[in-house]
Design goal:
There is one protein chain. The chain folds into 4 domains: 118 residues, Jelly Rolls; 119 residues, Chitobiase, domain 2, CATH 3.30.379; 126 residues, Galactose-binding domain-like (Jelly Rolls); 171 residues, no CATH class. It is built from 7 helices and 36 strands. The strands form 7 sheets. A 7-stranded mixed beta sheet has the order 25-24-26-31-30-32-33. Strands 2, 5, 7, 34, 35 and 36 form a 6-stranded mixed beta sheet that branches. Strand 32 and strand 33 form a beta hairpin. The protein is globular, with a radius of gyration of 26 Å.
Length: 584
């Protein structure tokens, strides 16, 4: 297994720390770490579950990161084979650094390799252009840092020309976004970590923001830089694309019964789709004489195709994926299942299964094959209008957190335009409506709504899709995020029944754990008084695929033969050692 650990300027990587858990029936195990075929470390894995500290002082930092190869050598007990279904697990991964963070002197170095927190400052009463630029910056940074999941906050400036202090903590950055005639990105402040100011005219502000996380940022080797016209990274994909077009290389697995997962990501395709066909191309090791087998293709745990293994060992098949099995992310699993006696341990060579990157995915645009939150993101692409009310700063802060959550679900950038609430609701474009005090629009029919100020009527739908009402006495405070389809116009509505604090509680709950967004699989999520937020399920009448909340969550597991690293190295796991080795 190969892993890459980011290393901020001025620091070196001291160790990688994991919790190791050996499978049963092993006599012992070692973990060996190499870099570019050079030996770095070898550590024994404890028999009991516990922390494993892998020293990495000799690892070299290349382009602000360290790339390592980890290999596990497992020694099974007498008369036992290593079971690939019982892997060595390395979890709770973190890194320990030595040294001190170096302050950036040019724009190119402003964003560190590891970011804990970003504070974006705008005017207390921002223009729509400033609000939109702040949201675009937050989305871009969230996408840039991926699974690090840095905290990103919006804060008001105390005055139009105010320059808040630079970062107050290691791996923290502050950026001011304002309209102005002096366009560009510039560092300010002396001593410690500087802040950054991004300014431009209203129609050019987003363009300047794009530079910070673009590939051109490496050339911004000055304390002040002005970006020329930059294009959005979003590129539409047509009705047919290869895995290579979708960012995938050849997919390979090795074992007695190898299997490969082919991802169908509607956010990467860039729109909702249906009538999906996958032209599978690949190879597998031909079965030896005396063994039979078959190729099985499944989606969402449901078999969609199967055929007998052939002597040629080649795969060239058209696979139809039923619409009812489509989610935002659908995994098409291709497996070679053998039948027969494979002998004792080591008596049978493992098979290799490869699905070529030339495998193609064909699809047709759809307006609603996937209901509820599973439609969100792909239905809002490539550009969504964000409707805000009179409290532009407060609504922008809410929209910023919502769009960060959606961007973390998307494989492509989500372009935005901040407009007035009524304008966003009335337009034909996809929209995110921020109405913290309540949405008063007869043209928008919410799945869950309320009426009354004493005893309160709660309008919902039952499991069959029929409307139902409940009278609650006394009334309760409800904050909600609801998925609405107004004809062909998809919308995500953030609102409450006159209780903005409940909406803020709900957004905070989602932002506290990025996986909460992935797990949403209904038509609405509600926060009622002090109760834990809960999801309102999609009625059976419109459900297009079985499965409950979280069934579509993409879980990344890193395999090393019989080893799986099940934890992503995230912001909360990083530890910093000061010059003398004290931990921050």
């Amino acid at each position: 297994m190969t892993i890459t650990v980011p290393v901020p300027d001025g620091l070196s990587l001291a160790s990688l720390n994991v919790t190791a858990e050996l499978p049963i029936y092993l006599r012992g195990a070692d973990l060996t770490v190499t870099q570019d075929k050079q030996f770095i470390a070898r550590v024994p894995i404890p028999a009991q579950r516990g922390q494993l500290i892998i020293p990495l002082a000799n690892a070299k930092v290349v382009e602000k990161s360290v790339t390592l190869r980890l290999r596990a050598d497992l020694l099974p007990a007498d008369r036992y084979c290593i079971d690939p279904n019982l892997p060595l697990r390395l979890t709770d991964a973190s890194a320990t650094y030595a040294g001190g963070e170096r302050a950036p002197a040019v724009v190119a170095d402003f964003l560190p390799a590891v970011l804990r927190k970003l504070v974006i400052y705008v005017n207390a009463k921002p223009s729509q252009a400033e609000a939109n630029a702040a949201i675009q910056l937050a989305e871009a940074v969230a996408a840039h840092y991926g699974s690090q999941n840095p905290v990103i906050e919006l804060a008001p400036l105390v005055g139009p020309d105010a320059r808040p202090a630079g970062a107050g903590a290691p791996m923290e950055r502050h950026i001011v976004v304002t309209e102005g005639t002096d366009a560009g990105l510039s560092l300010y402040g002396s001593g410690g970590i500087p802040g950054m100011r991004i300014t431009a005219r209203s129609d050019q502000l987003v363009n300047q923001v794009r530079l910070l996380t673009s590939s051109l940022a490496n050339y911004a080797v000055a304390p002040r830089v002005v970006a020329g016209q930059l294009k959005s990274d979003a590129r539409p994909i047509g009705n047919e694309a290869t895995l290579a077009d979708l960012g995938q290389q050849d997919l390979t697995d090795e074992g007695i019964n190898p299997q490969v997962d082919v991802p169908i990501d509607q956010t990467r395709i860039g729109r909702p789709v249906h009538h999906v066909q996958v032209h599978l191309r690949g190879t597998y090791t031909p079965l030896p004489a005396g063994l039979g087998g078959e190729i099985v293709v499944s989606a969402g745990g449901k078999t969609v195709a199967r055929w007998a293994a052939e002597p040629s060992g080649s795969i060239d098949r058209m696979i139809d994926v039923p619409d009812r099995l489509l989610k935002r992310y659908t995994t098409l699993t291709v497996a070679v299942n053998e039948a027969g006696n494979t002998g004792d341990c080591g008596a049978y060579q493992p098979m290799t299964l490869t699905i070529d990157s030339a495998t193609s995915v064909r699809s047709e645009p759809s307006s609603g094959s996937v209901p509820g939150f599973q439609s969100v993101v792909q239905s809002l692409l490539p550009k969504v209008q964000i409707g805000v009310g009179s409290d532009v700063f407060g609504d922008t802060a809410r929209a910023l957190q919502v769009m960060i959550g959606l961007q973390r679900l998307s494989s492509v950038p989500i372009d935005t335009a901040v407009v007035g609430l009524r304008d966003a609701a009335a337009s034909r474009d996809p929209a995110v409506l921020i109405a913290p005090g309540g949405l008063d629009d007869a043209n928008v029919s919410l799945p869950v709504s309320t009426s009354g100020s004493g005893p309160m009527t709660l309008n919902v739908v039952d499991k069959s899709g029929a409307p139902a009402t409940l009278t609650l006495d006394p009334g309760v405070r409800i904050g909600s995020l609801q998925v609405v389809s107004n004809g062909s116009k998809p919308m995500l509505v953030a609102t409450s029944n006159g209780a903005p604090g409940q909406l803020d509680k709900l957004i905070g709950w989602l932002s506290a754990d990025p996986w909460q967004w992935s797990a949403l699989d209904g038509m609405a999520v509600l926060a009622i008084d002090d109760r834990e937020p809960f999801v309102v399920a999609v009625p059976d009448t419109v459900t297009s695929a079985p499965g409950g909340a979280g069934s579509s969550v993409p879980v990344a597991l890193w395999w090393i033969g019989g080893v799986v690293l099940a934890a992503v190295i995230g912001v909360g796991a990083w530890r910093l050692i000061r010059h003398r080795g004290s931990r921050a």
